[in-house]
Amino acid sequence: MVATDIARTVALTAAQAAADKLARDIVLLDVSDEVVITDIFMVASAPNERQVQAIVDSVEERLRKVHDVKPTRREGERGGRWVLLDYADVVVHVQHTEEREYYALDSLWKDCPSIEFVDAGQRGGQDRDGRQDAA
Length: 135
What we know:
By secondary structure, the protein is α+β, with helices and mostly antiparallel strands. The protein contains 4 helices and 6 strands; from the N terminus they run H-E-E-H-E-E-E-H-H-E. It has a 6-stranded mixed sheet.
């Protein structure tokens, strides 16, 4: 099985929202063959709790604005070291850098294919939501 197009679109929007808040090491993993309840894991990290929270807020706001979706579950907010946003088909993990190294989600799911994400701030021709800019 392969992640649905809508899951890919939502995940790429979430990744861009995270990148806009300077998230590090953003990875999108297609876990649809391994996990029954979701299609994509987005994993991103930040060096401090305040930035973790800023990234989470940005992702949640952008997905609500662009795709009119809200997370069905939000966990880990109090500590600010690992926050999970569950959008059913996409699960967003924003981790403090130390938690990311310790729990190594990337390694745990290393056999799953990754989905390419290129930060719009690093390329021309597209807006922050991945749509083509008008010339």
